[in-house]
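Data availability excerpt. The first of two example chains:
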Amino acid sequence: MAEERMQTGRGIKPVVGSPRLPRMTEAPPPAILIGGKNLLMPAKPKADTGTAKRMPAVAAGTVRQPKVHPEMQAPKTRPTAARKDGYVTLRVRVSESGRLQVVGAKAVEGPLVDPKLQGALAYEVTLGRKRLASGGIPDVGEQRSFPDPKAPVPEMKGHHVVPVPTYEVNVRVRKAEVAAAELPKLEIALFRIKEELPEEAAALAAEKPIGEQFERELREVGRLKGIKPDKLAKPLADEIKKAFR
């Protein structure tokens, strides 16, 4: 038997599920009678005059008013000593004779990542026998000239490197490693890297001074023994003290 499909459209007779039930109309449904009567709530009901099972009236003075709380405030914290985060960049001038002189200092926020011991020079900052910082300095102590492609002679077409008698380098040390009162005991050593250092140099440098570990690969250029702000010009002394504050 073929399945009948429902048809839609105008002129189609409605589907009657149960012919015995009355047909639905647009008229409102009949009201439900209560006790055989059609009861309606009056528009203005009478006041309650009953006395049985009634809650006693509450006096006006006993009504609790909601508490008014002050606005929330940020919790107070105990004052703590300021942490010495960040590091200090010391600008060090190196003379032709190998004399080291601090000519500037600047505090920098954020962590310090020691540069690898590679390049032309290497520096080391120590306090007694403790190594505080070290790093490599590439391309320093020399002046490079750009080649001239239209040079009349071949010698002028290539790069020319000329050593300079005086130059400046940046030395970085963590602020938490040294206090301002310890600056007179701080030492800064500068080394020339003669041979490439082994790959484990960065790990070994944390144990003891690099000059003792790599005597063959490094040659000391100069050493600054102590930074004494009281013997420096006042602007420079104030700059160093502010950086290590």
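And the second chain:
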Amino acid sequence: MKKPVPIIIYRPRLCDLENMAHDWEEGRSSDVVDRLRGIISSPFARFMGIELVSISSDGEVTVRMDIQGKENSLGAAHGGTVFALADQAFAIAGNLGPEYQVAISASINYVRPGLGPLEAKAKLICETKSTSLYEAKVFQGGEMIALFQGTGYKLRKRSV
């Protein structure tokens, strides 16, 4: 009889948004800041242990996550873990402007397994009046492990 695999319950450290320095808040409306705070501290992001690293002046978003407790059966980061990290970077990057954006399409290509802490960098590639295309690259150390593309839809009114 096979020995059962132990289940690891991962409890991420909670991000204290009230006491963090937020250079990214400068020059943004309170509506945008509130929206970004909601995305950054969403229940799913907190559950996954995804942390905001930076938002650059040109809109590149960097987030990070430890993979402990999120590995697949081979010991590498689960594909859903990698996707979730890239998607969070995309969500933040897509909501830096005045309109709410939601994903209407997303895809990812995995290049190599992630075996340690991961970082994703997302940036706008192009946009129209109603949609936008973002790219997120996921890294372990300096090595890219996945490439994500997400299409955002700009909501005219807040409907979520």
